[in-house]
Amino acid sequence: MRSLINILDLSVEELDELISVANDIIGNPDKYADACKRKKLATLFFEPSTRTRLSFEAAMYELGGNVLSVADAKSSSAAKGESIADTVKVMSCYADIIAMRHPKEGAPYVASLNASVPVINAGDGGHNHPTQTLADLLTISREKGRFSDLTVGFCGDLKFGRTVHSLIQALSRYDNVKFVLVSPDELKLPSYIKNDVIKANKLEYVQTTDLEKVMPELDVLYMTRVQKERFFNEEDYLRLKDSYILTPDKLINAKSDLSILHPLPRVNEISVAVDKDPRACYFRQALNGKYMRMALILKLLEVEV
Description:
Blueprint: H1 12-27, E1 40-45, H2 51-62, E2 66-70, H3 84-94, E3 97-102, H4 107-114, E4 119-124, H5 130-144, E5 151-155, H6 162-171, E6 178-182, H7 191-199, E7 205-208, H8 211-214, E8 220-223, H9 234-240, E9 259-261, H10 282-300
Parallel strand pairs: 1-2, 1-3, 3-4, 5-6, 5-8, 6-7, 8-9
Helix pairs in contact: 1-5, 1-10, 2-10, 3-4, 5-6, 5-10
């Protein structure tokens, strides 16, 4: 039995395999319609979510399985003080696989140690979000056709942005990837990601506060929102929340084949006017998340189609 807690739990070969299965699902959906018949997914979400939870549920339904859902910690026994360990031990009696989101870093890892079924980390605090990274990788693969030889810009909240941390970890294993890190000084990438991932893999990187200056060199631009729920001080949030707003005029000097990604939800960091630009990939990215979660569920349940 295997769980997915960190994107590095998957080898490069396994990532390639998941992308291949996801592309096959896109091309041949009927082939997978009964793959998980009589299987049940439990979604345990102790933090608000729309896309991630519903894409997991859509993924399981499209595989022919069923879903048991806890969408709010207040409606679960966690509100009574039940431990994560006890919760997942009980859920293991009812479901074949668990997807878990939790505001505390490491909670899904604790769950994986106590569950008797696979556990998927659907986001833990400001730490990791591996299945969003799977969505990101499928999107980059389908839009760019490669992972090597890319200049990838990350803009916004790089300190608390778990999607940023996971994607940097994943891309660091490919050749000749350059990272451009755009953020206010207060929201810079954590040193453990910069030192243990980027520097440890001897990858080129640039840190800047000026998005427009670096725009012409980017192959991929990964926008993120400044996350109100990660701030202890509302004054700091209000001061930083509009640090970067992507508008059509800021894309004038961008590459014609730039791919603009965003893990969503968007607040106001990308103008709706950008949505019409063919380089805007974020809604295709959300759809790709469903396909990669389908591929992951098949892999962890060891279902062969």
